[in-house]
Amino acid sequence: MSLFLEAFWAFLATVSFSIMFSTPKKELLYCGIAGAFGWFIYALCTRIGLSSVFSNFWGTVFIAYFSRLFAIVRKNPISVFLTSGIITLVPGAGIYNTMLHIVMSDNKMASHYGVETVKIACAIAFGIIVILALPQFMFTFKIKEKSNNNS
Questions:
Q1: CA angle, 148 as apex, 143 and 151 as ends, to 5°?
Q2: What is the spatial distance between Cα 69 and Cα 61, in angstroms, rounded to a whole number?
Q3: pLDDT tens, 13-63?
Q4: How far apart (Å, rounded) are the C-alpha atoms in residues 70 and 86?
Q5: Computed from CA positions of residues 121, 124, 59, 57, in that sequence, does the dihedral angle turn out positive or negative?
């Protein structure tokens, strides 16, 4: 499947989760953009050979960056965009497989999936922290006005 088609489906998934989370209707497009762009970066990183942990980290960095930018521009809390946008990167399959193998008493596979899931969750958390630690001026844009002081 092409990267752009995957990003489109990620956009739809993000918007769907945004609706479930009762996101204001005027912000749905921006939530979808954040989620789609994050998935695009994740899929691109995976295709160039990065591990799923590093791919999730870079996808999260872009989602968090756009969420913070949209929060300032759209005058909403960052959680409006970040919670919905990050949903496509959450390792749900890893959590499911971990629990499945625990129930089946397959400790080797349970620990394999569990460790991978925890690494991905840490990468997501670290990606968010990296962007939230950046100074505010990196997200605000001021247009310099020309002053006519011809007196």
A1: 155
A2: 12
A3: 999 999 999 999 999 999 999 999 999 999 999 999 999 999 999 999 999
A4: 14
A5: negative
